[in-house]
Amino acid sequence: MKAPPVDIEAVKDFIRTHAEHCRPYECCGLIVRRGKHQEPLSCRNISDNPEHNFIMDPRDVVRAEEHGEVLMSYHSHVEEGPTPSPEDKVNAEKNNLPMLIVSWPADSWELYTPCGFTLPLEGRPFVYGVVDCFTLLQDYYREKLGIELPDVPYHGKWWKDKKDATGAVIEKGKDLFMDHFSKAGFVVVYDGPKRDDVLLMQRDSEPRVNHCAIYLGDGMMLHHAPGQLSGVHPYVVDRGQYALATRHVIRHKTLLDAPA
Predict the structure, then answer these.
(1) Which pTM does this prediction carry?
(2) What are the boundaries of each domain within the chain?
(3) How many C-beta atoms surround the C-beta of residue 79 within 10 A?
(4) Residue ranges for the chain with pLDDT beneath 50
């Protein structure tokens, strides 16, 4: 059954207060239905760049889902117009939720409704946790191969060890790629990269891999590095910065018999 529309006017004052409280950072939250009533719930923004982007704390999302039926998301743009950015649209499409945006303190509003928007694989801006190397991998496999790769929650520099003032390790970093690739249907291969293989790299992340790229064949790869647009770059097997940073080549089990 289709969820009833959100009474946007009824939640605007809550969102205004939240936006002002979080400024200069973007606020974010969800609007849920509980029984016959709707209620806005604030979420924590755990983005590495909260002045210009938002990522809702997964714990807050779970809390909202337990509280009621999630109807809509909201967030603020600080000193910028309310027009949804490409990253905003990606976020709304991924969660299949309408997104309400307030420009604060201008107090102008815009509502984005999911309509099938997708970003091209090349030329994407880098927004960690929303549009990055992992989401590029997911989108490539979905668009080119019809393979859905599962989400893996992540934020911050998860690959880094946490150390105290003396330099002693108090919490080891995570090894998300290596911990999850087999669950996603991949196996490590040793016969050199073939088209559609995934290259797992260490980029200032010893001893864990923290970056992925897709090998396109003919010495080229598709990847998305921080601070850069996604694109196709040369990958020279056994030499060159990307090849030297590669620690593993993994192949999806459905492609094990595919030609090079």
Answers:
(1) 0.84
(2) 8-112, 133-255
(3) 11
(4) 1-2
